[in-house]
Amino acid sequence: MHKCCRKLVCAPLIRSGNLVEGNPGATSGDETVPYNSLSLCKSWLGSKVNMTRAPQAEHDGSDVQVELNVDHLPEDDIIPNMTRSSRVKYITYYEDSESIPGKRTAVWELDKANHRNIVRSPVLMRELWLQMWHDIRPDTTSKFVTKAKRGPLRDDDCYWDYGKARCAWAEYCEYRYIFGDVHLGQSCRLKNSSAETLLNYL
């Protein structure tokens, strides 16, 4: 998509730090909050930033992109040099690799999120919960929770894959019928307890 003035001088429209061609829909910001306002948050990051882009949905890590120790000037926006599929909604994480003394900053951008209802976003709640759980663990070895993959964390996250005639996410979920289940998806449950599953995110 291009924004053109009467003199036919065209400038690419930038959304979420990426050149957007065609009409994929808003990638960051919506009708309530412009991107320029949201990007101000990234000016709070330190001098070195780790950037990770991953699908919002559960994923196996095959579509995760990472840029480490990217230089960041104080009070400036920062733009990832990453690709995106028009069919996937991503979350882009910006995290201090060298924290300002006494502070630790992370900024998350969620594609196509309505900012009026952001607190209802299951993806945001999952990420916030994982980070809080990570922070209270005495045995954690990193400042931020890993982004390498996102699998089911609760029985409710498991579901039946009709194409494969089994529970999806076979690494995490199994078919285990309990009296009262009324459809196949309800009988898909975590193989291990949630507590054991969470150990993958230290």
From TrEMBL:
Record-level GO BP terms: lipid metabolic process
InterPro entries xref list: LACT/PDAT_acylTrfase
MF terms (GO), sorted A to Z: O-acyltransferase activity
The protein, known as: Uncharacterized protein
